[in-house]
Amino acid sequence: RSDAPGYGDRGAHADGLRLGDDTALGRVVSLLQGAEQSKTPVLKLIEQYAGLFLLLVLSVAGVTLFLTRDLYRAIAVLVVGCPGPFILAGPSAMVAALSVAARLGILIKKTKFLESLADVDTVVLDKTGTVTLGELRVVGCSSINGMNERELLSRAAQCARGSRHPVSRAIVQWARDAAVAINEQTGSVVESMGLGVRHESNGDVHFVGRRGWLEAEGFAVPADPEHPGALVWVAHRQTGPGAMTQQSVLGAVLLADEPRPEARLAIPALRALHVDRCALLTGDRQRVAAQIGAQLQVDDVIAEVLPEQKLNVVRREKEAGRVVAVVGDDINDSLALASGDVGIAMGA
User: Fold this and answer.
1) Distance CA 255, CA 227 (A)
2) Cα distance between residue 108 and residue 104, in whole Å
3) CA distance linking residue 270 with residue 256, whole number of Å
4) DSSP structural state of residue 20
5) What whole-number distance in Å separates Cα of residue 307 and Cα of residue 336?
6) Over the stretch 196-235, which tens digit does the pLDDT of each residue have?
7) Distance between CA atoms of 315 and 152, rounded to whole angstroms?
8) HEC string of 222-264?
């Protein structure tokens, strides 16, 4: 079934079933077919000059026949100088590479990326879900003004239920594990990419997100609690009679994530492949990002950046003359992935 939010309606039945090219397998097949038909820059160059090369070979064969009067020598020149192997070698190698990659669970959109990978000297890594497990878990709450922890959790989950971000999923899972009721029927949920989620119902608006977003909304956010991991703030705004507005910050939800065990091995392996620079890119707080960066021994840590700022970071690296590969989970880093010379999206 493919009836999850975000899917299109093309080719869908009333019950949400999809057939043929509209299934996940059909889209994978289409992707592989498109990749096989794509051409690398070097292959395009070979095809461009193949016609001229053929004329050169025919000319040499004609001169050989004229000077030696030996037809077999002229035929030998044609056989040896035929441009066919040059034209066929490139596609054959690329199709073989695509087949091996597909067996390993790697889907390649265009073969030009295979050629670009050989020149990559800089790798920009997203943090959450890429070098970390991406399985954030809530480890506690820091409430303000004596608010009950379960009430704070209920309000946070009311917002988070409408988002697929790892932070939102962790909050909803925590609420369910704690048997906290989540009203999933009333109100509307709006997500601001890289910032947070808001839920509005009958004049009550709840926010769950990063400090800067809430401050831009007019909230006075207190100092962060002592916590080595990620955190998000929960706030409430209510519009009363006579357009009177009351708003307050209710508290913070504290989360934790762990680096992937294989990430510690990946960085040295990249350096062995002549990657000169590894940078960690995240929207998380500087303290959290620096801790993960130190564990992985990356060259640079760039924290507290929004999706469009991630794009600017990649552009600066390219403007410095570097060939950049961007690795992310394609949640808040799709712009950066698209702007890199090579974009690598981590699958589920």
Assistant:
1) 9
2) 11
3) 27
4) G
5) 7
6) 888 888 778 889 988 888 899 888 888 888 887 788 899 8
7) 40
8) CCCCCCCCCEEEEEEEEECHHHCEEEEEEEEEEEECCECCCHH
Name the residue among 166, 178, 172 with its Cα closest to residue 135: 166
Say if residues 159 and 189 touch (Cβ distance below 8 Å). yes
pLDDT, one tens digit per residue, over 260-285 is: 888 888 889 999 988 999 999 888 78
Collapsed DSSP state (helix, strand, coil) of residue 326: strand
What DSSP designation does 329 have? -
For the whole prediction, is pTM greater than 0.85?
Answer: no
Closest CA to 253 of 155, 178, 180: 155
Q: Which of 3, 126, 204, 329 is catalytic?
A: 126
| Distinct helix (H) and strand (E) counts, the chain | 12, 11
Tokens 């906290």 map to which residue? 180
Rg for the chain, CA atoms, rounded: 28
Residues near 24 by beta carbon (within 8 Å), at least 6 away in sequence: 2
User: Which residues are bridge partners to 248 per DSSP?
Assistant: 236
Please, which residues have CB within 8 angstroms of residue 13's CB and are 6 or more apart in sequence? Answer: 19
The single-letter code of the amino acid at 17 is L
- Amino acid 14: pLDDT: 40
Q: Which amino acid makes up residue 265? A: L
pLDDT digits (tens, 9 = 90+) for 96-149: 888 888 888 888 877 778 778 888 999 998 887 788 887 788 888 888 877 888
Q: Which residues, other chains included, contact 59 with Cβ-Cβ below 8 Å and sequence gap of 6+?
A: none
Please confirm, yes or no, whether 21 is among the known catalytic residues. no
